[in-house]
Amino acid sequence: MNKAEKAIQRMCETRWSAYRNGIKATRDKINQLVDLVEEMRDDTTMTLDTRSGARNLLPALCDFTFLAFLDLWNSILEETDQAQKYIQTPGLTLNRSLIKLRALETFLSTGRSALIEKAVSFATQKCEELGIETEKRIRRKKQLPGEAASDSDSGLSLKSQRRSAKIPVRVRGPFSPRNKNQISGYEGDLRHFRYCAI
Question: In the chain, where are the structural domains located?
Answer without folding.
Answer: 16-134+157-196
